[in-house]
Structure formats: C-alpha cells, structure tokens
Amino acid sequence: QVQLVESGGGLVQARGSLRLSCAASGRTFNITLMGWFRQAPGKEREFVAAITWSAGSTYYADSVKARFTISRDNAKNTVYLQMNSLKPEDTAVYYCAAGRFLAYTPKYYDYWGQGTQVTVSS
After folding, report:
1. Cβ distance 49 to 36 under 8 Å?
2. How many Å from the N-terminal Cα to the C-terminal Cα in the chain?
3. How high is the pLDDT of residue 30?
4. What single-letter DSSP state applies at residue 34?
C-alpha cells in the first residue's frame, strides 16, 4: 500500500499563488509517476499535471500550462504543485495520485490522497 498526504490548500485571491505538497509513504517502489487532479462542485475529476519519479518528465493540462509547475523531491518522496496566476475557475478540491504509467483519466491511478481545498476569490 501507498499512503499519500496532501497539504497547502487554502483561500487566495485571483492572480495569487499557492503551493501544494503531496508526501508519499509505504510501498512506493511500485510507483513510477505522481499526478495531480482536481474536482470542482458538480464536475468530473480532471487531470492537472503529472511527473515521473525517475526522469522528472512533466505533463500538464492545457488549462494550467505556463501557470502551474509540478516538481518532485525524491529524497523526501514528495511532489509539489506550484500554482501561479490563479483564477476563480481553478477553485476545486485538489487530489494527489500515484500510478504505474502516465494516464489522463483518474481510473488508471492506484492510490489517492484525501484532497485539499483550493478556493480562488475574484
């Protein structure tokens, strides 16, 4: 089993910044990739960004490209999501996920964190 714990959400004004963290523990050797998803009220969970543990290759949704940056600290088993130039439409619960291959749909990820709320006021 792999445990994922997110932190760093909160309330921020539009054009502000937040940094989310996701700490992984447990049997992480099976995990090759970490991702961030988000889910707004009444909407489906959607892909935000992903990063591979080994090479650090990154992938982004078009809606966040150039505003969000995903990174990882292998020594700490932690992944970060730096969110800049936030917009009200970025408001959602953000989830960290762990998987064995790159996928843009939630069902292919094996482990999930509990989620952290991000609210962007206009």
Report:
1. yes
2. 40
3. 84
4. E
